[in-house]
What we know:
The protein has 73 residues and is of the alpha+beta class. It has one domain. Helices cover 23% and strands 33% of the residues. The protein contains 1 helix and 5 strands; from the N terminus they run βαββββ. Strands 1-5-4 form a 3-stranded antiparallel β-sheet, covered by helices on one side. The longest helix has 17 residues, at 26-42. The chain starts with 13 loop residues before the first strand and ends in a 6-residue tail after the last strand.
Amino acid sequence: xxxxxxxxxxxxxxxxxFAASDPVTGERAQRLLAAVDAWLAEWxxxxxxxxxxxxxxxxxxxxxxxxxSTAGA
Length: 73
């Protein structure tokens, strides 16, 4: 399932926030986000793709949101 804009997730979406101990910028951030995007594109619950979003903030915080209504994540 494609990754959607964070703002399109419902208010009751599940949210996980991961923090880096040091800032991650430039090429390192691009590689990190590419890996996250690839993983999210394959993420499933009960063999159903998940409608999910991610956001990278302040070079340190990764937020991942999932619309749990579509697959009971």
